[in-house]
Amino acid sequence: MSQSLHGAQAPAADGAATTQYLIVGLGREEYGMDILAVREIRGWTPVTRIPQAPSYVLGVLNLRGAIVPVLDLRLRFGLPREEYTATTVTVIVTVAGRLFGVVVDAVSDVMDVAGNAVRPVPDMGTTVDTEYLKGLTSVAERMVLLLDVDKLLQPQDAQMLEAALPAASDVKAVA
C-alpha cells in the first residue's frame, strides 16, 4: 500500500486560511501532520537496523534508491512499544529537504483545520514534553494534537544516522 498525497492551504468560508492535516492514530490518541510535509503512506515493512541508534529510531528503509531513516512515533513520545498490525503504516515525510519515515498505528483521514481553530498547547510544566506539538484542535468531540514534524527527528540524530549508514548494509532487516 503506497499512496502519494498532495495538499494545500486554502481560504475557509469565513476567509481564514485552512491547513490540511493527515490524521494518524497512536492508541486512542489522534495526531495531525501537515499534509504538505507528507510524501506518501506505506504499509509497515521491516527495516534495516542501525547500530547505536536511539531506541525510537527503528532503522532505515530503501525507498526507490533513497535511504530513509524510520522512527516509531510511539517510542519517540515515550509510549510503550506495541505489536505492528495490518493497520500499522509508515508515513514518509519531508523535513528540511530530507525524507524520513514515521511509524504510526493507523491513518484515519485528512482534515481541514482553520488557522483560528488551532489552540495553543497548554503548559504542562516540566513533566510533559510538548516540544513536538504545534497546537491542538477539536473536531466533533475529537481532540487532535497537531504535530510539528520538523522537531521529530533531532539534528544530532540525523547526523548520527548519516555517519552510521555505511554500516547498514551488513545488518539484517527486522520486523
Work out the strand percent: over 45%
Q: Which percent bin holds the helix content?
A: 10-25%
Radius of gyration: 16 Å
Tell me the strand order in the biggest sheet.
1-5-9-10-8-7
Question: Globular, elongated, flat, extended or rod-shaped: what is the shape?
Answer: globular
Instruction: Supply the number of helical segments.
Output: 2
Could you name the ranges where pLDDT drops below 50 across 5 or more consecutive residues?
1-9, 167-175
Summarize the biggest pleated sheet: 6 strands, mixed
> How many strand units?
14
Distance between the termini: 17 Å
Mean of residue pLDDT? 80
Q: Write the H/E string, N to C.
A: EEEEEEEEHEEEEEHE
Which class best fits the helix and strand makeup? mainly beta
Structure description:
26% of the residues are buried. The chain has helices at 73-76, 155-168, and strands spanning 2-4, 10-11, 17-26, 29-34, 38-43, 47-48, 57-63, 66-72, 89-95, 98-104, 106-114, 133-139, 142-147, 173-174. The longest helix is centred in the last third of the chain and has 14 residues, at 155-168. A six-stranded mixed sheet has the order 1-5-9-10-8-7. Strands 2, 3, 4, 11, 12 and 13 form a six-stranded mixed sheet that branches. It is mostly beta strands and 175 residues long. The model is unreliable at 1-9 and 167-175 (pLDDT under 50). A hairpin with a 2-residue loop joins strand 12 and strand 13 (142-147).
